[in-house]
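Encode chain A's predicted structure.
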Amino acid sequence: MRVIEVFFPVVVVLVLAWTGTFNVCVAEERRVETPGELQAVCKEANPGDLIVLGGETWLDVRLKIRLAGSAEKPVTIRSEATWSGDSSFEMIGKHVVLDGFVFKDGGLSSGHVLRIRGSHCRVTRCVIENYNPEERSTRYQWLSLLGHHHRVDHCRFSGQNHSGCTVVVWLEEDGQTEVGKHRIEQNHFLNRPRGDGNGFETIRIGTSEHSMKSAECVVSDNLFQNCDGEVELISNKSCGNVYEGNTIIGCAGALTLRHGNDCRVLENLILGDGDENSGGIRVVGEGHQIVGNHIQGVGDRIDGAIALSAGVVNAELHQHAQVRNVLIDRNRLIGNAGEEIVWGHGKGTHQRTLMPLDVTVKNTTRFGPLLIQRIRPVDVGPTAKDGGG
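Encoded structure for chain A:
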């Protein structure tokens, strides 16, 4: 009897322990064929689930989805279908991965092709290609990032010919106390024809109105080819961002620190590739570091390889702030049109009278090998290998 009395409680404990495991949510792969099925599945999705969008083409589909995974087990939506026509997708959530979405040969009248809100979401191996309206003046964004801590990687953005940014970071999300801190890395941007004014940027981080906010975004290891939309190829309009290791080839524009302070432009490879409208790096504002960049064969779009803008006295947010306390170090400048470093670019226009102040320039070289191009066209899109977590 004593043996039974000892053994029985142990059995009960073991049964309870095993029973408890049956209540743990097990990640599932769920396949859907229609937008309605996707919306239904998203309402039941658990952390770690994989949702696969089947079919050949999703035409004229506009979806807004809410989802939440976890840091250890994100929810992944993988699209095998191509999106076209008047299709767009908005994700609101946390720890969600959008994988392999292809938007091709369609176009919108306004809004955003892809819009990501919330935090800690990832857009990977996606493509937006030739997604243009009938009129080039029609403005919408291809990829908009709101919230904080998103990642965009191994994507291709090709053939945008209309007004609007290719990728834009917004810093004015309602109800968000934290914004920015995104990573835009290892993507391919290409074949954007020249626009007819402002609003044709390839990447923009922030707006003039919110340009004194700290965004702390990282734009790294991307490849830009023939992106000619406007003079601001990359338009920085916020503080604390890093632009590192990007390759820019034959683009009729410049990496432009237009508004905001304390940004770092590090070890980028910028090649004019015969485009007389190509540019290097343009600087406005305070506390920036321009270090270790290779600029070769660029045209005179900004009058030289590195342009330090003239500023406005008591500049408002939309004007040119004075360049102050900037470090320019270890840059390699080879065979560029115009001056190596332009002091007071734009002086005398639009009330711009203030020359750059407290700028340190040192260790400039005029020869040497090219930096390594860090991303290749085969590294992006749905067929690319996973770039990691």
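The longest helix spans residues 2-21.
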